[in-house]
Design goal:
The chain has about 250 residues and is an alpha/beta fold. It has 9 helices and 7 strands; from the N terminus they run E-H-E-H-E-H-E-H-E-H-H-E-H-H-H-E. It has helices at about 15-25, 40-50, 65-80, 105-130, 145, 150-170, 190-195, 195-205, 215-225; strands at about 5-10, 30-35, 55-60, 85-90, 135-140, 175-185, 235-240. The protein has a 7-stranded parallel sheet with strand order 3-2-1-4-5-6-7, with helices on both faces. Strand 2 (about 30-35), helix 2 (about 40-50) and strand 3 (about 55-60) form a beta-alpha-beta unit. Helix 1 packs across helix 9 and helix 4 (about 105-130) runs parallel beside helix 6 (about 150-170).
């Protein structure tokens, strides 16, 4: 139980990678706050955890609203005293040519993928600094490292999240706060299921392992960064993509 006595917040925890991460953190002993705008699925994950005698509870969060982020942070602090682990996992995007994007689309992409994590981190970070301990894991995308076709603004937001992680790691190191980043490749989630079969086949052909990731495989990387096993690791970016993107 490496994380016994720790409290973790996981955004986007109502499904896919978020659900797998929530359950894996809870199995490691953490109390997990399931942060998501999707109440129905958030409560389903809570019920699943409860049935397995795991400590996880749902708390609504809308990352597009600064007021919601502030209210969530206050309630999380009231319930837990201090958040020890923050997993900024929630993300959103849609493949569309940049020249067809609307300003409203840009705003939503930036709010969920970049500004939401920045606001939530800012709200929870002072308590980590005061305690001189904390693990922050930002979940970006390889689109933020190499660019994604039809995902221009999303790529920019995720690239910003990667850079934010590195800056945060430098600032947090002297306070014992670690910040690292996980970049999933194509993963078997509801979003993947919505991709046309022809595009799925094209993706799989260029992945050296010839398959997409399972949510649990991404969750394992996140939990590594959240655990004591990564105590001498900060400012790092790890792709979980079956070799789709390789960086020297």
């Amino acid at each position: 139980m490496e994380l016994k006595g720790k409290t973790a917040v996981v955004t986007g925890a109502a499904g896919g990678i978020g659900r797998a991460t929530t359950l894996e953190l809870a199995r490691a002993g953490a109390r997990v706050l399931i942060a998501d705008i999707d109440e129905a699925h958030g409560n389903e994950v809570q019920a699943e955890a409860k049935a397995a005698n795991l400590a996880a509870e749902y708390l609504k969060l809308d990352l597009t609203s600064a007021d919601s982020v502030a209210a969530f942070a206050a309630e999380a602090t009231r319930r837990a005293g201090r958040v020890d682990i923050l997993v900024n996992l929630a993300g959103w995007g849609m493949a569309q040519p940049f020249v067809e994007n609307t300003p409203e689309f840009w705003d939503k992409v930036m709010a969920i993928n970049l500004m939401g994590p920045i606001r939530l981190t800012r709200a929870l970070l002072p308590a980590m600094f005061e305690a001189r301990t904390g693990k922050i894991v930002n979940v970006a995308s390889d689109a933020g490292r190499v660019g994604g076709l039809g995902e221009t603004v999303y790529s920019g937001a995720k690239g910003g999240l990667i850079a934010f992680t590195k800056g945060l790691a430098r600032e947090g190191a002297r306070f014992g706060v670690h910040a690292n980043c996980v970049c999933p490749g194509p993963t078997d989630t509801q979003l993947w299921n919505a991709v046309p079969d022809k595009l799925k086949d094209a993706f799989i052909k260029v992945i050296p392992m010839r398959r997409v990731a399972k949510p649990q495989e991404v969750a394992n990387a996140i939990v590594f960064f959240a655990s004591p096993r990564s105590d001498y690791v900060t400012g790092q970016v790890l792709s979980v993509s079956g070799g789709l993107t390789m960086h020297g």
